[in-house]
Amino acid sequence: MGLGIRFGKMVWNVAAGSVARAACLLPGIDQEYRIEERLSGPWPVGPYLWLHGASLGECRMLLNLACALREDLADCPKILITSQKAEVVSYLNEACAGIADVSIAPADIPSTLDSFVKAVQPLGLVLAENELWPGYLSTLSRISTRKNIALVSGRYRRSLPFLDFSGMGIACLQTAADLGRFSYASKGAVPCTMGGDWKLLNWARDGGLVCAPENPVVDVVFLSFHLEESEALLRMAKDSVDKGEAPVLMPRRLAELNQFRRLLLDAGLPVVDYPVVRKGCVSLVSRFGLSREILLKSRSAVVGGSFVRTLGVHDFWEPVRMGVATCVGPYAKGHEDIVAKLVSAHVLAQIHSPVDFLRRRFPSVDAVRLSLAQEKKKVLDSYFLLLNFIKGLK
Questions:
Q1: Contact assessment for residue 292 and residue 322, using Cβ atoms and an 8 Å cutoff
Q2: 71-112 confidence digits (pLDDT tens)
Q3: How far does Cα 309 stand from its chain's mean position?
Q4: Would you say 329 and 351 are in contact if contact means Cβ atoms under 8 Å apart?
Q5: Backbone φ and ψ of 377, nearest 5°
Q6: Angle, to 10 degrees, between the axis of helix 134-142 and the axis of helix 110-120?
Q7: Which residues, at least 6 apart from 335, have a Cβ–Cβ distance to it below 8 Å?
Q8: Contact residues for 176 (Cβ-Cβ < 8 A; gap 6+)
Q9: Which of 92, 103, 306, 369 could share a disulfide with 328, CB 3.0–4.6 Å?
Q10: Cis peptide, bond prior to residue 354, ω within 30 of zero
Q11: CB neighbours (10 Å) of residue 13?
């Protein structure tokens, strides 16, 4: 390893450790982000196959992956799912019962990772999307003589220059553009494939059917909206209410629920609490994990994270695969390549401005079915590659 790379890793370790320990001294931050727990544990006792993701969507995908592995591997090891987001860990603690164990993710510093791997004894590490933490990669490489790290449903833009790819045995990237960037960064040292978006894994394994909701009572669900998007949301919600529709709002962060409620009421929009759905009122959702239930009775969906340039677009595949006419806003941070392709193919509709909400075009049913069939094949092919990779870890 070159001197510059070693120096970069040293600087990263010192900086990450200093920031984390300083955060522990601020009670509010430590309570919200569980910094002390991320530094010191306690950690569950392994050995485990370790799966790690960041957001709720990524971790729900990993939960589906854990279910699939338990079904498809005759002697599946114990599985541990980690996330650095406290609210996601709370959700997983209930959702993963009987399937996988759950823990807050360890801080990416050497002392913490040493104690983490001593307890957890990871057989291998499966990373979701773009969770390429330098310490995770180097630590897993160090404790095993075989390549024991996989990236699934990968999205790749860029990474720190001292990232150690030597322990990676497989990388399944979402798009050709992601694959090209990753292959270039890893200097071709990691076996790569284009594997699509693994949020479709459960759906693909179940047969990949597309069935439009029957007798939808929700005209439009505003799916996973951030408070930063409130200006666009209020305009669209008002147009929907004025038209006599029944809209539903699912906030991205439950902590922002009451702020959304005040904004809607201040704008003169009637509000009810889900599961009540009523024409001419905005129905507010106050719990995680209800998106499938709501989409099963929705005519259309507008996906949040796409009305402010700096946010990341939410999982648009979820409503698409359920046969719900799906729209995104003008931005698609993190998924620009695939969103542009799907809009061009009439799989997604795009609302360039909130004033266009009532004039939005709905996607082509035939185009949606063709695109989903292609995605299904990519996801299943790459999943079988991962299965073989995990069998080789034992």
A1: yes
A2: 999 999 999 999 999 989 999 999 999 999 999 999 999 999
A3: 18
A4: yes
A5: -65, -45
A6: 50
A7: 155, 174, 312, 313, 316
A8: 194, 337
A9: 306
A10: no
A11: 18
Q: How far apart are CA 296 and CA 217, in angstroms?
A: 10
Q: Per this entry, what is the length of the chain? A: 394
Q: Supply the DSSP symbol for 145.
A: S
Neighbour tally for 281: CB within 10 Å = 18
CB neighbour list of residue 330: distance below 8 Å, 6 or more residues apart: 306, 307, 350, 351, 352, 353
Q: Which two tokens stand for residue 167?
A: 């322990």
- Per-residue pLDDT reduced to its tens digit, 235-272: 999 999 999 999 999 999 989 999 999 999 999 999 99
Which residue is associated with the tokens 């609210």?
Answer: 87
The one-letter amino acid code at 145 reads T
**CA 312 → CA 57, 106, 189, 192, 225, distances in Å?**
12, 24, 29, 24, 11
pTM above 0.85, yes or no: no
Pair type for strands 220-225 and 168-173: unpaired
* Residue whose token pair is 């609302």: 351
DSSP assignment of 178-205 equals: HHHHHHHHTTT-S-EEE---GGGHHHHH
